[in-house]
Write a structure and sequence with these properties.
By secondary structure, this protein is of the alpha+beta class. The chain has eleven helices and 20 strands. The strands form three sheets. Strands 5, 6, 12, 13, 14, 15, 16, 17 and 20 form a nine-stranded mixed sheet that branches.
Length: about 400
């Protein structure tokens, strides 16, 4: 049995459903193919996984009609403090301090748990998007007027365009012949949440250590999410420790500025690498999110980069449709690639460079880093520029959805 759609999206994580909602709101027929069951991530239990949402990403969610539901569970990021040092010795004498009060928006972004964001996207798709869960895309074949997608449950879907939102190992990209470049970081990210005695005041901390950075990100209440990068061998060893021993290793790195800390949920880990698609488009195919660019978690920009892709691709496709163009043709998809690839590549390589610069114990580099952070921190215009860039407010041109406007 074959069903016709304007667009089929492979991948039901976060970027895929967000793109589907933006396109469906503009009148396109969209199917999301998700290999996982629909309720795989929609449970009520806190598990510590959370995202740092840039202001532009929050505005996209508002344009999709989701923010009023999400806001009660979101935590404002009011300030960011970045410093370097060695575990147990505390931060160095210089650092970067970003205060949302210095920009007109008054905040730098929000922290939001995965369970709330996924649940909102899942609920919003009902009645607006065809959501095919528990099945996967096995094959794709391009024809002159479209693309046929074969699913693992035996069904076939015909569409004008197939979008790969299926992660760093994107099957859509592989079948389309899109190659990737990148490298492993030799690091593992340890992810968890901690309860602490003292309030965080909405401040996010980034502590650079020789083995890798530790991000401490504020969640509602006296609770924070941590993303802790360690070399592979030590990271695996730390991850294998019982909870109390894990905390004993974490505490000298975390410090005591928030009082005593306790684990607030399960722990997760994943290997870190840089992987960039050499193209974001192929005949009848486009890539978004990690399928296009997998980046280091420094500054928590992974999801924000994906939502920038979502906003740009949706705008390109909707505008082409309204002009009467075939949305899956090369000229249309080239507009998307030209819009997104330079920005995403520059940000990915920038984070790659920051990780290389800070994840070492070279004393000369450490001194240079201290001077550099101190110099930036002393110039208000530079601070504001970094803040607006991190908040996603400096894109040119800015996709409509990232300003909070619908297509």
């Amino acid at each position: 049995m074959t069903t016709d759609f304007d667009i089929v999206i492979a991948g039901g994580g976060l970027n895929g459903p967000a793109l589907a909602l933006a396109l469906a709101d503009a009148g396109l027929r969209v199917a999301v193919v998700d290999a996982r069951p629909a309720d795989a991530r929609a449970g009520e239990a806190f598990d510590g996984r959370a995202y740092a949402l840039a202001l532009a990403s929050q505005r996209l969610l508002a344009a999709l009609g989701l923010w009023s539901e999400l806001a009660p569970n979101a935590q404002e990021i009011r300030k960011v403090a970045a410093s370097q040092g060695v575990a147990g010795d505390g931060p160095g004498p210089f650092g970067l301090h970003f205060d949302g009060a210095e920009i007109e928006e008054g905040r730098l972004g929000y922290m939001l748990e995965d369970r709330f964001l996924y649940r909102a996207l899942l609920g919003a798709m009902a009645g607006r998007v065809t959501h095919l869960s528990g099945t996967a895309v096995l094959d794709q074949a391009v024809a002159d007027a479209g693309i046929r997608v074969a699913l693992s449950d035996g069904r076939s879907l015909d569409a004008r365009l197939l979008v790969g939102a299926d992660g760093r190992q994107s099957g859509v990209a592989q079948r389309a012949g899109i190659r990737r470049t990148g490298h492993d970081y030799g690091q593992i990210a340890l992810v968890a949440a901690v309860d602490h005695d003292l309030p965080h005041q909405g401040v996010a901390h980034q502590f650079f250590m020789p083995g890798g950075p530790l991000a401490i990100l504020p969640l509602p209440g006296n609770r924070s999410s941590i993303v802790w990068s360690e070399p592979e061998d030590s990271g695996r060893a730390i991850m294998a420790l019982p909870d109390e021993q894990f905390l004993a290793v974490l505490r000298p790195r975390f410090g005591d500025f928030l009082g005593a800390i306790r684990l607030a949920g399960p722990r997760f880990s994943y290997p870190l690498n840089l992987t960039l698609a050499q193209r974001y488009a192929a005949p009848r195919v486009a890539l978004v999110g990690d399928a296009a660019h997998g980046v280091h978690p420094i500054a928590g920009q992974g999801l924000n980069l994906g939502l920038r892709d979502v906003a740009a691709l949706a705008e390109v496709l909707v505008a082409a449709r309204r002009r009467g163009e075939d949305i899956g043709t090369d000229p249309v998809l080239a507009r998307y690639q030209d819009w997104r690839r330079p920005d995403a590549t520059a940000l990915a390589l920038g984070m790659d460079g920051v990780n290389a610069l800070f994840s070492n114990a070279n004393p000369l580099l450490r001194a240079a880093r201290e001077l550099g952070m101190g110099a930036v921190n002393a110039v208000p215009a530079l601070r504001r520029g970094f803040m607006r860039q991190a908040a996603g407010l400096s894109l040119k041109p800015m996709p409509r959805l990232l300003t909070g406007r619908r297509l």
